[in-house]
Amino acid sequence: MSIGRDILFLFVAFLAGVAMAGQGTMNSAVSKAIGLSESTFVVHLTATVVMIIILILGLGNGDWSKYGSIPWYYYAGGLIGVAITYGVVIGIAKLGAAVATTSIIVGQVLTACLLDHFGIFGLEKAPLTWLKLVGVVLLALGAKLLLG
Q1: What is the distance between the alpha carbons of residues 34 and 32, in angstroms, rounded to a whole number?
Q2: How many domains, the chain?
Q3: 13-38 pLDDT tens trace
Q4: Phi and psi (nearest 5°) for 115?
């Protein structure tokens, strides 16, 4: 990959992080108004409606014929999405956006390192090095520092 493309994809990932922090904060506010389970339902219903519109408009480029070839446990991502929404809403409500988001990122990076290391879910193996582990520890220390 070229450096220009790498920077573009880093920026896209950065924007996803910006959106995640904003989304979590908004979801937390909705939860305070209508309740945790109710806000989680509204979030996922809204996402479902948006995705139906995207698919109706023909903006998807997938292949539905391969639906049955995917291992059943890969579909647990939808269940995990509900758990993530609950965790984000609770974390932000109790810790604030900065600390909760930092903690979420630590969990994401550590898990991603392990998924890469073992090549889980078809990923190409990328060893968990001491340097990567130090990076995760520094992220965790950053979360602790944000707690005050």
Answers
A1: 6
A2: 1
A3: 889 888 988 899 999 999 999 999 99
A4: -60, -45
Local structure of 1: helix, strand or coil: coil
Cβ atoms 136, 102 nearer than 8 A: no
pLDDT digits (tens, 9 = 90+) for 109-148: 999 999 999 999 889 999 999 999 999 999 999 888 887 7
Q: Judge whether 5 lies within some domain.
A: no
Closest of 92, 76, 94, 85 to residue 42, by C-alpha: 85
Q: In this structure, is residue 79 part of a structural domain?
A: yes
Cα-based distances in Å from 13 to 20, 27, 37, 74: 10, 20, 28, 23
| Domain presence at residue 18 | no
